[in-house]
Amino acid sequence: MPPKRYGFPKSYRLLKAAEYEAVFAAPRVSSDRYFTILMRPNALDRPRLGLAISKRKVKKATARNRLKRIVRESFRLNQHHLPTADFVVMAKPAAAAAERKELWESLARHWQRLNAEAAIS
User: At what angle do helices 100-120 and 61-78 cross, to 10 degrees?
Assistant: First the structure.
């Protein structure tokens, strides 16, 4: 068995507005005080990630960039356990002030919840 790769190439990202719109059109939602994650199954052989972290919710660019790094890293390390679906992560205002550990645990719960939900349907 070849070793698992934990990269995050462009093929694992949502890049076009139409890809985001498809997720927003009919998502399954997982939400807590830090993040809302939308999921929609795709016909590909891999999960894909999109980030929608707005200035309205997280005012400072440094905080938005920090959240993006944390989300991308969490996705990268969990991608082999996720269903083949498109995910859009949106941050809430509380995420900007949260500790990295809290955010990491929140994302882990979201991935687990969405994985279980995808297995049911």
Answer: 50
Rounded CA-CA distance 94/46 in Å is: 30
Query: Considering the chain, what percentage of its residues have pLDDT values greater than 90?
Result: 81
Architecture of domain 10-120: 2-Layer Sandwich (3.30)
Domain extents in the chain: 10-120
Whole-angstrom Cα distance, residue 51 to residue 29? 15
Residue found by looking up tokens 């550990």 in the block: 101
Tell which phi-psi region holds residue 55, choosing left (phi > 0), alpha (psi between -120 and 50) or beta. alpha
> What pLDDT, in 10s, does the model give residues 2-17?
557 777 888 899 999 9
Do 93 and 56 contact (CB within 8 A), yes or no?
Answer: no
Q: Are the beta carbons of 98 and 58 closer than 8 angstroms?
A: no
Quick one: which of 116, 110, 104, 99 has its CA closest to 31? 110
The vertex-83 CA angle with 78 and 87, nearest 5°, equals 75
